[in-house]
Amino acid sequence: MEREVFLARVRAATGGRPPESPPHVQSPPTHDRVALLRDLADRWRRPHAVSHHVDAAQAARTVTEILRERNLRRIAPSAHPLLAALGIPEALREMGAAIIPLPTTSDEVRTDLAGADAGITVAAYAVAETATLVERATPIQPRAVSLLPPVHIALVREEDVVATLDDLFAALAREPVESGIVLISGPSGTADIALQHVVGVHGPREIHLIVVDGASG
Amino acid sequence: MGPERAHHEAGQIDFLDGARRALADPAFQANLQRAVHTFRQNRTRALATLPEWEAWREQARAIKAHALAHLDHYLEMLDRSVRGAGGQVHWAADAEEARRIILDLAGRHGVRRIVKSKSSTTSEIALNPALEEAGIEVTETDLGEFIMQLADEEPVHFVAPAIHKSPEQVATLFADRLTTPRTADPQALTQAARLHLRETFLRAEMGISGVNFAVAESGTIVLFENEGNARMVTTLPRVHVAVMGMEKVVPRLADLAVMLRVLPLSATGSRMAEYVSLITGPRRSGEADGPDEFHLVILDNGRSRILGDPEVREALQCIRCGACLNVCPVYERAGGHAYGSIYSGPIGAVLTPLLGGASGAGELPFASTLCGACAEVCPVKIDIPRLLLVMRRRAVEGSRAAAWMERVGMRIYALAATSERRWAWGGRALRAALRLFVRGATVPRLPFPFAAWTRYRTFPAPPPEAFRDTDHGA
Questions:
Q1: What mean pLDDT is reported for chain B?
Q2: What are the pLDDT digits (tens) for B433-464?
Q3: Cβ contact B63–A22 (<8 Å)
Q4: d(CA B313, CA B351)
Q5: Which residue positions in chain A have pLDDT lower than 70?
Q6: Could A181 and B277 be called an inter-chain contact, meaning their C-beta atoms sit closer than 8 Å?
Q7: Which of B53-62, B224-233, B383-392, B438-447 has the lowest mean pLDDT?
Q8: pTM of the predicted protein model
Q9: CB spacing of A173 vs B161 below 8 angstroms
């Protein structure tokens, strides 16, 4: 159907009055920064969703400890500059991990990332209200890094932790919107069979959020 | 149990027959009731810690009502933004046109395999049968939908499609259809589905999703899920087609905050869905994944008629959370199949007849006790009981026979009630007539037109004389 014909029917139904401004949206009250970070950490204290709060100097060690404890060898870090700034690629090489190079085509995504044991990304934001991390698809951080491997480790700078969903969307609306943004609040899960909760359906079964203090870049 | 996957539009809805079949299946009753009770409890428990809940509902309602009041404006804006982000927009007046648009896209790309994430709208337009008829392999990838597809059944609940199945029933299905070792452990069953579907995801040329919200200002479509299958569907295949009813528009990104709060809490009692994807056009230059093409199909299919009908417009505010299903005493027993449409429960009893199509849908508004629980839980404050009454009134007005019977019945009653002599005589006559049908102390069955009443109830045997004729009544 022609767009104009479709819209004409809708216009006939609404009367076609131009809108006043949309309803005002109110934010819930927020706590101070310390309480905020505590809220975030509290919600990531589940068996398959764990948070860590560390200084920049300890970030790389936190990552390698997670990998070592679980004996994860094939690692897919994104090419986000913060990972390099925190010395993570170096630490991975030192622990003898097989680093999967960043895929540049969808074929490489399918073949290489599908075989990774863990993906490492940098979250653009984390939201304390709902304990949500926010990832943007970019050439240096493909979507599948946080999707195909069974374990996902996400780092977020402390200053990128926002209080509420309203703060998040206000921030997103200020910047150009990427093609793919995903809000992640836990491991891939389902309760579709008899309401029994099972993790690791299609995405990661385990997810770690590392909040990093004093990270630049 | 449950009907085979059918072509909805051509479907015939027989609520009573469907409800009777559901009631006769003890396993179905036990599984469904356990599920809705759990959803209800989880929701109540979560809301107890959120004093802001009522304020959020009001915000969510105001946003949806505003978007609907200016839907032409926001659809135009959405069209501009999606195209600005490199996506393509298609306008479908009805189900047939929507199917043709998607079949054309599949044909143009030589698509042989499609993966789908959960979408009620594609069920509304009976998309899968049309794709399969064209020789395309279609795989539902939400675990509940996947189970329903293997069972060749319609979802029983639009949030939890296979919730009426026991693990043993799923085990049998998987053992028969998937060549996996037989197990009734949900963990192992989920793993079997993961392995099977992972291969399918990697091979599919097209992904089809629904849309929970579409943001006019940015051209972003929003998908809520927990499994990650919608992320797969919108990340791996070359072409992504999103299908939305035109009422899913919200004006701004900022409006999503409250929607993210009310939808998961209402659906399952979770504070947040594990994944909320915001998709704005196809992959950009330099990105390794995401689709090469993004298509948005915007569907009318009766919605502009509802929009132009002020008495029922608010039905379009629905965000398909399923909360009204979980609290409905009728849904809890009858199950979703009886409603003959993907839109079941209280809101389905309004939406299905409003959207038109299936014959028998006019009966659905009567499948309610009007207890009002649905209106209390609705996160966008739709007054469902009022809508049910409007639909009932219209059904009666639309049926000459029903209107005639009611008029004649009321005339006869008025005649009797306006004369003491006629009232006493009428009572005696009715008691005498009733006695013909007494069995023991009750009247188990009456002839037409009262048979409909006694089919589910027994009438007490009449007393020998009326109360007013006794000493007490004198």
A1: 93
A2: 999 999 988 999 998 888 888 888 888 898 88
A3: yes
A4: 10
A5: 29-31, 217
A6: yes
A7: B438-447
A8: 0.92
A9: no
Q: Which residues of chain B make contact with A202, given a CB cutoff of 8 A?
A: 141, 194, 197-198, 201, 227-229, 231-232
Q: Domain spanning A30-213: which superfamily?
A: NagB/RpiA/CoA transferase-like (3.40.50.10420)
Give this complex's ipTM: 0.96
Annotated domain spans of chain A: 30-213
A77 part of contact set with chain B, CB < 8 Å? no
CA–CA separation, A88 and A70 (whole Å)? 17
Rounded Cα distance, B88 and B369, in Å = 45
Residue B1: band (very low, low, confident or very high) from pLDDT cuts 50, 70, 90: very low
Q: What is the pLDDT of residue B10?
A: 46
By C-alpha distance, the chain A residue nearest B306 is A13
What is the set of domains in chain B, with CATH numbers?
A: 15-305 (3.40.50.10420), 417-469 (no CATH)
Check CB contact of A11 with chain B, cutoff 8 Å: yes
Which secondary structure element, helix H or strand E, spans residue B7, and what is its range?
A: none
**Tokens matching residue B257:** 């905050």
The residues near B385 (Cβ < 8 Å, ≥ 6 apart) are: B368, B370, B372, B374, B375
What does the alpha-carbon distance between residue B121 and residue B209 come to, in Å, rounded to a whole number? Answer: 9
Per CB-CB distance under 8 Å, the chain B contacts of A166 are 254, 257
Measured between beta carbons, the chain B residues lying within 8 angstroms of A196 are: 167, 186-187
Residue A79 CB burial class (10 angstroms; 0-12, 13-18, ≥19): middle
**Using one digit for the tens of pLDDT, what is the confidence trace for B30-48?**
999 999 999 999 999 999 9
